[in-house]
Amino acid sequence: MAAVPSHPAARTAVRRPSVVARTGLYAVLAANAVVVGVFFVQAGFGSNALVLLGRLTGLYGALLMAFQLLLVARLPWLDRRIGMDRLTSWHRWVGFGLLWTLLGHAVFLTLGYAQMASMDPVNQLVDLAGTTEGVLRALVALALLVVVGAVSARRARRRMAYETWHFVHLYTYVAVVLAFTHQVAVGTTFTASSAATAYWYTLWGGSLTALAVGRLVLPLWRNWRHRLRVTAVVPENDQVVSIYVTGRDLDRLPARAGQFFLWRFLTRDRWWQANPFSLSAAPDGRTLRLTAKAAGDGTAALRHLKVGTRVFAEGPYGAFTAMHRTRPEALLIAGGVGVTPIRALLEELDGHSVVVYRVATDRDAVLYDELRDLAHAKGAELHLVTGPPVPDRLAPAELARLVPDLADRDVFLCGPHPMMTAVLGTLRALGVPKRQIHFERFSLAG
Fold this sequence. Notes:
By secondary structure, this protein is an alpha/beta fold. The chain is 51% helix and 15% strand.
């Protein structure tokens, strides 16, 4: 353990960026919900309650679909304040809401028109699909969303490779196009007034533009500008390797310690694979470093990358940064290879820090020598905690003994999912306020 007198207190944020961003998103959604309701009322009411419910659920389904696109657009302002993991999780739950809303739209309209025409619902649906422009496209869109929703259920998602899940998920964009053309063709509210028409075109145009900018234009622009290449591959142990990447004008790349990129190494057999790896050193304007543990054939092959390999990196992403500090002092808790963003954060943070590094054995302590030297240079405390998962070496009594003032610190946590869940329970038991706990789960599929 290294311990040196603390640095002067760091400046902390007055307004929490995550609260500002969440409040902004909620306000945007609420305002649009009100606008949609107003246009619905202005379009007039029919005589059939089921048709009325069908129209209303369809309108709010369209709004949720546009909102979903915004959540996964990976816009830097939102991502830095909320984090890709939380935005992806919200996207997932909004997606299930969207699915039920659109199912309600189809069911209510079919039953309502069947009631008005004195037909059975199946024949009514067939008739609508064959005679009304846009209905067949809407049914195809709904079927695609049902498939995407089914593979997004947790049980199905765990049994599926990310690449397979991602390929199926791409059909959501086909569903979006089909749903929009359906709304243009038969949406009574869409054509009820010029203001309503302008609103819906603006809503869809804004959402699709945000998606194109965040997912396509910005990554292409940054990679064209920075021209990233591998400059060194350094094994840290038998399973972990550090990769150094450099390029042009990296001092203008808005990356911070704690963030991650989606890395594509442009070799013949890996160019199509994107993996989320955190920066394991604070960006210095000249070099980026990632440190990865072998978790399959793809990641195991990283140690064989050749110097000069071109790199396509999407990002930086993530809200696991010092931007969200609320206290002048910090506690950094790392588990296993989760030490990579923690090591980078320690390099950037001002004020006194305590680092707790949890591993099974001393040999698993990746980057420990760097952590020790960095802790000594910055006047931080470093605790290496070893041993099997049971008994829990970071249970409330043990963590309180290591860091008696932890309730007065910001806590940054990164590690394997079971360890993070256990530590979050410990922090709650010790009364650490939720606003002082910062963590991010690196899962592209939520």
